[in-house]
Structure formats: C-alpha cells, structure tokens
User: Fold this.
Amino acid sequence: MALLRVVDRDGVEHEVDGRTGLKVMENLRELDYGVAAICGGMCSCATCHVYIDAAWLPRLPAMMSDERELLSELTHHRDDSRLSCQLEFTEALAGLRVTIAPDE
Assistant:
C-alpha cells in the first residue's frame, strides 16, 4: 500500500491507500468518487481521465501515441491530462496527486 491523493469532481481531496502493482485506474475505480473505467484499461474510452499534479508529471512514463490521440479528442483535455489506465502505481509514485477530470 502507498498513499494516493485524489481530488474528486467536487474539489475535495482524499488520501487513500493505493495498491501498488496495479494501474492507477484500478485504484480509482474502487472509490465512490473515482473513475468509471468502462473499457477496463484498454485505452479505448477515456473514462479514466485524470489531471496529474504538476510536480508529478516528470516522474511519469512518457505518453504513448494511442493515449495522446484519445486525450486530444476530449473536451476537457489539458496539458496535465493522462489516462489513469496507462499509469502503473508503484512505490516510486507514493504520494501521487490526481484530480478526477469532468465526465465527457
């Protein structure tokens, strides 16, 4: 377990025990205020869209082209947007702060 900070769509920040070895999405979809993750992590629906706290962006793996393409089609896309299904939650990411993006 490692700390995961999650800001819900109402702007309330929650500290949760995230399970390492899982995708960030898998941790978030278990929360009442988390993500829908309809495609189950196949990078095909963007229902796991989150905003990454600026301090954490350089610590994440580079975005692949399919993630970049899907995000670019979203109304609420920002420079700090990522699909949480593409991010493995590791001990190195303990303390990661994400904000759940608005529904599309």
